[in-house]
Every structure is written in C-alpha cells, then in structure tokens.
Amino acid sequence: MTERADLLQQVADESRRHYAAWSLFNQTMADRLGLHPTDVQALALLDMERGPLGSGEIARLTGLTPGSATRLVDRLARSGLVERRADPADRRRALVALVPGALESLGEAWDEPGEAFGAAIAGFDDAELHVIMEYFRRVAEVGRGQAARLTAERDAAGPAGPAAPAAPAAPAAPAGRASGK
What is the tally of helices (H) and strands (E) in the chain? Predict the structure, then answer.
C-alpha cells in the first residue's frame, strides 16, 4: 500500500470511529434530555437556520418522511421547545420555530461536552480550522447526496422496497466439527 493509500485508509477509519462516537454521544445526550436522538438533531438544525421552517423543510434537513417530521414537531411542541406559527406569506401553512430560551433550558447538559469539544480543537491554528471546516462541508454534502440517492432508489422500488441483499453464506464448519467430533 502506498503512503497516500495508507493515509486515506486511516482517514476513512477515523471517520467511521468519529461517526460511531458521535452517534453514541447523540443517543446518550438525547437520553439525558428525555428526547429522541432525531429531536436533538432537529433542535440543532433549527438553531442554525435563519428563521422558522416548515415541516417539509424539517423533513428535508433531517431525512424524515413528512409524516415523521410532523410527529417530531409534535413531540418538540409538547416538550415546550418549539412552537408553530402561521406563515405570514401563506396563512394555511405553519412554520416551526424554537421557543425563545428553549435551548438555554437544555444548555446545562451541553456545558461539559461543549467545553470538551472546544478543548479538542483549541490547538489547531486558523488554517487548520479552515481545512477541518471544509472537510465537514464536503462530507456533509456527500452524505446529503447519498441519502437523497438512496431515498430515490427506495421510492423508485415501490412499496415492497428494494430486494434485500443476499445473506452471506454461513462459514464452513472446521473439519471434524460438523459430525460433532
């Protein structure tokens, strides 16, 4: 393996470890807050948006179906974290916004993790931070594109969905084991 190929494999491995660790953290934080992991992600996405979103936009950002996005908004509204507002441009449409102070009510749970994540990147200079930011932008775009592709393939396959991949063959029993010896 070339040095570059080895480095690319290490990056891929660390990326998978990062995703697994982040998924575990997100689940654990959601459990602590009494929320579903998707709810935590939706709150973070709503916080980054410039204004209220429709449930269709929330579905697109989270990868949920429209019905699942509506149920997510219902849960967050019952928890007092979001509110529905009439869309000034179309009163038939509801927009979803964070309740003022909603994230501050959850803030204490984020204090220690926020400090830890801040410490993890504190030693990088500005040029390195730009590279890290660009990496996250690129892989997020790839992730959104691949999710859209998989969703389109699923939808094109119809209600039965795509055929499940064939199960791998069971490993052969070592000699002498099949007969119980």
Answer: 6, 3
Distance CA 91, CA 23 (A): 38
Rounded to 10°, the helix 37-48/102-121 angle is: 90
The helix/strand/coil state of 86 is: strand
Residue 128 token pair? 């390195």
- Cα distances (Å, whole numbers) of residue 105 to 33, 35, 41, 102, 108: 10, 13, 16, 5, 7
Q: Compute how many other C-beta atoms are within 10 angstroms of the C-beta atom of residue 124.
A: 12
User: In Å, how far are 42, 50, 113, 143 from 22, measured between CA atoms?
Assistant: 15, 25, 12, 15
Q: Element (H or E) spanning 96, and its range?
A: strand 90-98
pLDDT per residue of the chain (181 residues) written in tens, 0 to 9? 899 999 999 999 999 999 999 999 999 999 999 999 999 999 999 999 989 999 999 998 888 989 999 999 999 999 999 999 999 999 889 999 999 988 887 888 889 999 999 999 999 999 999 999 999 999 999 998 998 899 899 889 987 665 555 555 444 444 444 434 4
CA 80 to mean position of chain CA atoms: 22
Count of CB atoms within 10 A of residue 73's CB?
24
Query: Is the pTM for the entire model greater than 0.70?
Result: yes
